[in-house]
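seq:
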Amino acid sequence: MTKASNIPIENNIQVCPTQEQASITTAHLIADVIKSKQELGEFAVLGLATGNTPKLVYQELVQMHKNQGLSFKNVISFNLDEYHGITPAHRLSYHRFMRTYLFDHVDILPENIHLPFGTWELNKIEAHCAAYEAKINDYNGIDIQLLGIGRNGHIAFNEPGSPFDSVTRLIDLHPFTRNDAADEFGGLDKVPTQAITMGIHTIMNAKRILLLALGKRKAEIIKKTFESEMTPQIPATFLKARPDIEYIFDTEAASLL
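struct:
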């Protein structure tokens, strides 16, 4: 893969010709943070996403590790979310996703990997979420946060109705989100009804935020996000509170802007 040639349409928006090139651009931005922190002898604290959107990003980071010597030994990772009620070994858990697409292929130290666990009993989840927030704070926050966007405007699993001041917590999944996952799980009845997610406040506290959107299916929500006022009904609109958010789209995702 080679670095993309992008079309900036605003200072904080880059539109790339293809999904691959948008993903490459995103991967290089993350790699630059890792390398700059290495030069300072510091940890690079990454906020990581799952789903179809970041797969090519992780593929490029793996290639950079294998072919260009990009080390992940100074990386601390925090994932955005995890389904509640499935084990880390489940084929669709985000623990497994991250191992499959990134962690098993780079030299990140296992003790530096952090993801919410979806197997806690309900009476222990609040403490687990508080501990997750505290661990992020222990590392002085997230240096660069990668986000996708759901077709109903969710970021992480902050579904419509999520407040701006929300932190890591258990949340009920929106029917729209569950329907989108039904085929992957083999039926709507098999899709978890809840998830543990970083909150909007947690995400917004990251030092740098990248939102990556790919494909025609995301064009409508991207348009709606940019045209709407900030509202809990479209959680992604809260990103407008940070004028330094970096948006990276392919031409299809940006087609309605």
